[in-house]
Amino acid sequence: MIYRVEKVERLPAALADNVVYVSEEFELAALKCACGCGHRVNLMLGDGHRVNDVEGLADVSPSIGVWDAACRSHFWIDKGRVVWADRWSDAEIHSAMEQQLNRHLQGAKMSQPWYKRVARWTMNIFRLRK
Fold first, then answer.
1. C-beta of residue 41 within 8 angstroms of C-beta of residue 24
2. What are the extents of the domains in the chain?
3. What is the pLDDT of residue 126?
4. What b/e sequence results for 32-59 when a residue is b if at least 16 CB atoms lie within 10 Å of its CB, and e otherwise?
5. Higher-confidence position of 117 and 14
6. H helices of 6-113, where?
7. For the chain, percent helix, then strand, then coil, each to nearest 5?
8. Is the dihedral of CA 42, 44, 47, 50 positive or negative?
9. If you ran DSSP here, which 8-state letter would residue 123 be given?
């Protein structure tokens, strides 16, 4: 199985086999799970995943953990080829998902305009004084 990169404006509803779709505008990528189960895998590119086009072949890092499907696949894509990774325990999956959620929350806080961050900070100070 060799994955290739296809750059698109919007991710398609139906995904073809062996294609990593990349929407640079929305910083998203999507592919079907490498195990063949057909599960759709969505990647947020602004959140650490990178998809590089190496002469038309997909290079995806860090590893892709398909924790929301029965297969629980875990793999990398290196120059189009799937490289299988060790299975993770429930505790490892929970920890990784918690870290990802925290990154999202931190990113959301920093993406607010400066005046909203100052207002939130000021309100928190007054709450502490009560």
1. no
2. 1-87, 89-130
3. 63
4. bbbbeeebebebebeeebebeeeeebbb
5. 14
6. 90-111
7. 30, 35, 35
8. positive
9. H
For the full predicted model, state whether its pTM sits above 0.70. Answer: yes
Please enumerate in sequence order all residues whose Cβ is within 8 A of that of 31, keeping only pairs 6 or more positions apart, or say none: 3, 15, 19, 20, 21, 40, 41, 43, 58
What is the rounded distance in angstroms from the CA atom of residue 92 to the CA atom of residue 65? 11
Computed over its alpha carbons, how large is the radius of gyration of the chain?
18
Print burial letters for 68-80: b (CB count within 10 Å at least 16), e (below 16).
Answer: eeeeebbbbbeeb
The span from the CA of 122 to the CA of 89, in Å, is: 41
What pLDDT, in 10s, does the model give residues 54-90? 999 999 999 999 988 999 999 999 999 999 999 999 9
| Predicted pLDDT at 130 | 45
CA distances from 4 to 57, 110, 126 (A): 4, 34, 54
Q: Percent of the chain beyond pLDDT 90? A: 60
pLDDT for 117 equals 65
